[in-house]
Amino acid sequence: LDRIAPVIDDLGRRFNEAGHELALVGGPVRDAMLGRPYHDLDFATSALPEETERILKPWGDALWDMGRDFGTIGCRKGDWVVEVTTYRSEVYDTSSRKPEVAYGDSLDGDLVRRDFTVNAMAVRVPGRGLEDPYGGVVDLAHRVLRTPGRPEDSFSDDPLRMMRAARFAAQLGFTVDPAVVAAMTAMAERIEIISAERVRDELVKLICAPYPRLGLTLLVETGLAQRVLPELPALALERDEHHRHKDVYEHTLTVLEQAIDLEERLGGEPDLVSRFAALMHDVGKPRTRRFVEDGTVTFHHHDVVGAKLTRKRMKALKFSNEQIDDVSKLVELHLRFHGYGDGEWTDSAVRRYVRDAGDQLERLHVLTRADCTTRNQRKADRLRRTYDALEERIARLREQEELDSIRPDLDGNQIMELLGI
Ligand code: ATP
Ligand code: MG
């Protein structure tokens, strides 16, 4: 915290002078101790929002009070995003979707209502004295997520915290305390009172984290995934074509990890669309397989069914139309190149592939290549060669089209005539 000491101590003095306490809390305290980067400075204070606003106004570069209903005033200070929230002690109505907010009168009271011990630490400013009433430092050292009180009470106050456990496991690479896992398993169905948007936000952070496998595995093993993303655990029942390899669920997690390895092609930043497409690319399989086993005829290949299921799920989770279009397009197109293996695609078939992919072509390259890598070695090599050939063909076609587009419509004689040569 030495790096930001001048900023936070200065703000702390201003609150003290006005007769109020101020403490850095939650994410930045945790991340500073882990040596992770952070840009948000979250504070808790004894001051009421009006008072906070009065103190921040002359200090910050730009002020906003988006979270005023929750007692939060925010401002920008140089590169930092500062948010100051009045001490809270929340009273929950267990049947309602939203926590009701009541202001509290102590930092300890504010910390006890936080989700995990590693998020329930504070540093008072100025002076920078650590407040760690629930053993967050020890849990940080053991890299484990525990709740400050009984996990059952915590999750019954706010079931979203179960999703947050999976999200932080994926972000931090931490394990989750067995008592917490047990509570999540017992209470998974409670997630259904939480709004789709809040669930989605945690899911997005989980998927874009460095270790999504950890978070997803936790969701599946506790039964939360069955409520928020049922297509994923359904894959676990599904053996691959030859009933020889690991199930499609395991394959899916591997494809996701391969896609993350290939992400550099998309600029190196976590790419939600690409990752979500990897997660959903085979979700059509169980459904189509069942039709076949029923003896019911199915006319759709699993990629078409998969694209439909993807749309439906993303809609339920309130993703944007653009995200839904992009992800479902990738799911629908990811198998098409298999037909290229015979080398019988005409130029117009290649052009159609490029046109159908549209601005998703780079992501389609990533998804198909990620999908190639997990089959048995010989098949994987064959698929990879096929896709190499297709990419080369696309590149050649592009070059050709570029040449065509810059070649003038005039022939040599007409040019000589124009130039008087
Ligand atoms: P990041 O901002 O990097 O996602 P963070 O730890 O700051 O991580 P936020 O979701 O921004 O996470 O929440 C800020 C802090 O507020 C958390 O560290 C936690 O202490 C507390 N918090 C947020 N949501 C909840 C919740 N649903 N229940 C209990 N505490 C919460
Ligand atoms: Mg935060």
Q: In terms of topology, how is this protein built?
A:
Blueprint: H1 5-17, E1 22-25, H2 27-34, E2 40-45, H3 49-56, E3 62-64, E4 72-77, E5 80-86, H4 107-112, E6 122-124, E7 129-131, H5 136-142, E8 144-145, H6 151-157, H7 160-172, E9 175-176, H8 178-187, H9 196-207, H10 212-222, H11 225-228, H12 231-234, H13 248-261, H14 272-280, H15 284-294, H16 302-316, H17 321-333, H18 347-357, H19 361-372, H20 377-406, H21 412-419
Parallel strand pairs: 2-5, 8-9
Antiparallel strand pairs: 1-2, 1-6, 3-4, 4-5, 6-7
Helix pairs in contact: 6-8, 7-9, 7-10, 13-14, 13-19, 14-17, 14-19, 15-16, 16-17, 18-20, 19-20
Bound molecules: adenosine-5'-triphosphate (ATP) and magnesium ion.
Residues 26-27, 40, 42, 114-115, 119, 158, 160-161, 205 line the site of adenosine-5'-triphosphate (ATP).
Keywords: ATP-binding, Coiled coil, Magnesium, Metal-binding, Nucleotide-binding, Nucleotidyltransferase, RNA repair, RNA-binding, Transferase, tRNA processing
Cofactor: Mg(2+)
Protein name: Poly(A) polymerase
SSE-based structural type: alpha+beta
**Treating each run of at least 4 consecutive H or I residues as one helix, how many helices?**
21
- How many DSSP-defined strands? 9
The outline comes out as: globular
Order of SSEs: HEHEHEEEHEEHEHHEHHHHHHHHHHHHHH
> What is the rounded distance between the termini?
75 Å
Give the strand order of the largest sheet, numbering strands 1, 2, ... along the chain: 3-4-5-2-1-6-7
Ions and ligands: adenosine-5'-triphosphate, magnesium ion
Note the beta-strand portion: 5-15%
The Cα radius of gyration reads 27 Å
Give a quick account of the main beta sheet: strands, pairing sense, barrel closure.
7 strands, mixed
